[in-house]
Every structure is written in structure tokens, then in C-alpha cells.
Amino acid sequence: MEISIQKRVLEANESQAEKNRKYFSSKSIFVLNVMSSPGSGKTETLCRTLRMVMPRIRTGVIVGDICTRNDADRLEATGAQVVQINTDQFGGDCHLTADMVYRAANELDLDNLDLLIVENIGNLVCPAEFDIGESARAVVLSVTEGEDKPLKYPLMFQVADVAILNKIDLLPYLDFNAQEAVENMQKVHPGMPVFYLSAKTEEGFSPWIEWLSASVRN
Amino acid sequence: MEISIQKRVLEANESQAEKNRKYFSSKSIFVLNVMSSPGSGKTETLCRTLRMVMPRIRTGVIVGDICTRNDADRLEATGAQVVQINTDQFGGDCHLTADMVYRAANELDLDNLDLLIVENIGNLVCPAEFDIGESARAVVLSVTEGEDKPLKYPLMFQVADVAILNKIDLLPYLDFNAQEAVENMQKVHPGMPVFYLSAKTEEGFSPWIEWLSASVRN
Asked: Can you say how many angstroms the Cα of residue B109 is from the centroid of all Cα atoms in its chain?
């Protein structure tokens, strides 16, 4: 019974996700779902990204957290349209659903957006199971988290279209083997592009910004 | 309906957790549930801890991961009794349940243990909701994860009895404000002890080992 309810929850989500996808497509908005562990640097990476692509790419952000609007405040400082979802009103949900994203999106001026970024809740497990109607998914892994994370959390790396390896400015102080981490990503998702960057120093942003810009244009 | 099922799942878990608690207590085993984000350094912290407390404290470890037995292999190298739980056989569950822990515990020689450490799945959200019949809970936060995590994931810091602030060897290379992080912990859980340490350099382990040793003796 538990499993059949779980299946029904996922099916209802899938159905709303398909509606979202058609809705965003009808407005020519590219939707990027950004996922990671807590503290991998999603928000800082997105703040830098927004400053580099706006106003050329008109961008809105939906940011999910269980509590606080800290991230929304940081993202709003870039000038982007931002909506915060707090899941504590949904029982502290550990992921965003298609329905939450739909409702939040309608608080934005969608007719003036080319790109909608959804910063999901910091969790390397559950968000991977919930389609939100996005055009593409990015997973962020920071170099402080260990090389074996793609093998330990394979679904996240399988559903992602691209990966960002963040905080490369810390590599000199760590025993982290970046090549091994990327090899592990390729084991679970052969061919996935990986962008090495540092949201702190801005090193390595160009290929990521090029990928994002090309994705929005297409 | 979804909510009532969820409630029933939590109630069934609670009931098994109480059984576990009585069972472990009857064997005079102190059970520590260790939780954190992926990549905060739980396994490395535990490897160091085991080397410091064994054989004085006879220790077993149950280690939870969705996939791989990488962590079990690292922990076994310390000489501890180790059982790996992989939740991919349970649909990739994002947390350990009381039932999983009960079954895994019975693969250990419990009559020759003083301390059972459960290394939960790397997830700062869901494991906080599932009592496994532990004697105490420790949350590990690494200094690379940001000061605001206790405010963004309050339940985890509320249910924890102690916190470990790990990777302090990296502080010189980060903008992390450790005092602010600890203040945020105290906001959601006033009075919670916090141990500053580095699993890499072994700096700061003494107070943590003292706390653990005293807890096992009582």
C-alpha cells in the first residue's frame, strides 16, 4: 500500500510536470533545475551566473528551501526576479514538486523571461526523483565532498544533463582527485559534460556560461 | 490520504525504534546515530574516532548508503565490526529506518559491543525524521557548507544531541565564520555542545572522544 501511494504521488507529479513543460515551452522559457547537496555552492554559483548573463538573458529564479529566505535575498541582489518557496508549510518536504514550481512560476512576470532557474532543496537524493517540468538539469558537486559521490548517489548523476564541479579554488588544500570524481560521473552517466569552476574566484565560468547561453537560444 | 499513510509509516517506525532502544539497552550498548550532508566527512571522522577508542570501547558500525560499500571498507580497516546497508534494494531510500537498523544489528556480535555507531545516509533532511532507537544523535557539519545550514535545516539540528564542526583545517582558506555557524546552531538548539575538529589532522578530537567515552560509560 505504501508503495502504491508513493507511485500515485510520483504519477501525479509527472502529470503536472508535463503541463509545466508545455506551459514554459509555449512562453519560450528555458527552465534549468539545479540540484546538489547542502553547501555545495549552488546559490553563489547562480549569483555569479546571473551577473554574467543578465540583462542579455532575462532570468528569473525560483529558490527552494525548507526554511529561511537567505538564498532569495542573495539572488535578488543580482537584479533577477526571484520567488522563494519554503517547504516547511508542506511538512518540511525534502524536494520541490512540479505543483510547487507551477505556483511559484506564476508569481513571476513570465512574459519577460528567457531563462527560469529553479534552485532545488539541498539534497542529493530526493529531488532527483521529482520531474518539475524543466528543460534540463544541472547537478553541482563541490570538491570538498569526495570523489565517490557519483557512485553513492547515482540517480542524481544519471538524471542530470550537466555537472558543475565547484570550489576548485580549494583543490590545493585538499586530497581530492578531480579526475577520479569525473571518471565516477562518467561511469554512471557516460558523456555528461562537466564544468570545473570556482564560484568564489570566477575561474572556469566561460564554458558553463557558453553552454547555458546556447541552451537558452535553442 | 498521502498524509495519513506518511503518519502510519512514521508510527510503525517509532514502534520499532522503541523495541530497538529496549533491545540495545538490555545489552548495555550505547547507540550513536551520526547524520550529515553528503561529503561532510562522517566516515573519516568515524575512522579516526574508532582508532582512538578501540579496543578500550568495543565498537561496531552500521553504515547506510544508497549504493556502494566504500564506507564499510574504510571503516573495516580500523578493525571494527561493520555492516553495510544499501538502500537501493528498498527503492533508494534516503534515510535508515528502525527496521533496517534492527536487522543489520543482528549481523553483529552484539554481546561483545559497548558502542554501536550508525552512520546514516548523507542527507540533512529525511534522516532527522526517523528514530532508529539510538541513545544519542550527532550531526556533522563541515566548514565548507556555509554558516546558515542550521537555520535552513533546523529539524536536524533540533534532534541532534551534539554537533561536530568538521574540516577546521580548511578555515584559513574559506570565508566561513565559525562563530556565526555555532550561533545559528544555538538559535535552533540552545545549549547543544559543539565539537570543532579536523578529521584530516586530528586537531580538536579530545573533547569529542571524552564526550563519547563518558556517554558509553553511563
From this structure: 20
